[in-house]
Input
Amino acid sequence: MSHQENSRRNFLKLSAAGMAIASTSSVSLAKDPQTTAIQQKMDVTSDVDVLVVGGGTAGIIAAIQAARSGAKTLLVERHSQLGGAMTTGGVAFPGLFDAWGKQVIGGVGWELVKESVELDGGKLPDFAKVPQKHWMNQVHINLFLYSLLAEEKCQQAGVEICYYEFPQAISKASSGWEVDIAGFGTRRKVTCKQVIDCTGGAEVVGLMGYERMREDETQPGSYLFQIGSSHNPASKQMQRLYVHGADSTNSRTVTEANLTGRKSILQKVRKTKKKLMHMQTETAFRESYRIVGETVISVNDYTSGKVFDDAVGYAFYPVDLHTKTGVKPKPLKPGTVPTIPLGSLIPKNSHHVMVAGRSISSDRLANSGLRVQAACMAMAQASGVTAALAAKQSTTPRKVSLEEIRAEIKAHKGIVPAV
Output
């Protein structure tokens, strides 16, 4: 036998031995008590009435309301704080809560905004006065304080908050849904009776297989920052730049939007030679997927102030579509106040699921007015009430009595259109 053949045979023997050792080690590791204990620590089970996914503008209100209405509620948020566009995105001037000299949106959302302003020593708009420009009655909040108060109110209501987690798979169960949720070091199995999707892009509805819609073009996002000589992240002091093509569909497109915005901010710092005093952590997005609901709100419905038979709240804002050249809001006619129908919060042909937030079922122009914070809070309160009642009655949101829904909203100081 040649030296070369002998070396080859020895190599194969060593390789086989190495594979056997690796195989043996692998089996031994799987049986190791310490490893099994670690895996058990990763595995968490939650059995709740209502699962709210997304802790942004709408998700906070939906979760608080569901819990206050008696539902055992779990709130899942993939980031590190509550508030979404209002806090992480820095759009800390929610509106509009009033229309034509009177308040039209109240309830849990208004309670949180009002307490945030009062605790910060701020000033609330006088809703009895009709402003010359709509933005004059936006409410300026301290975004840091808002996120803290949102956490406090959730915990006081009994909401369990799960940061750094997001659904990976959803399947139908006998009385609702089974949801596989992942976070780092956590694998959570949730059994729930109702789901409220507050992700902003109806991501959970998409996982469920229900229909969504979106145009190829999206409105630009905004990146908020402050260049100057003093640090004051109050909303009136913030500077904003458009991030054109901003798309919140997935992690890749969000990464691209953030990199684009940050690059532009760095260029401004170099050009102005001033200090960068403040910068939000990510782009604030305006537009993503919307559900195809039992009712699709058209721009004519919105601008005419149509009072839907199943109206559960109001919205009020100009048609406000942002483009590459900016935005020219189209104010509503005097006395016009759009309404939010329950059917626009329920995916078509669905069971045990609702949405709240900018993914409301609507055409693009109607959505440009519906997507703002106060309207999202109104629809979130309605979805929280409806989901809690549906869970209690072991039924679907569409089968819950409208009278019960409206009465419960009013009981929590929400404002319901007269139908």
Q: What stands out?
A: The chain has three domains: 3-31, 44-88+152-214+288-411, 221-279. Confidence is low (pLDDT under 50) at residues 10-30. The radius of gyration is 25 Å. The CA atoms of residues 249 and 288 lie 7 Å apart.
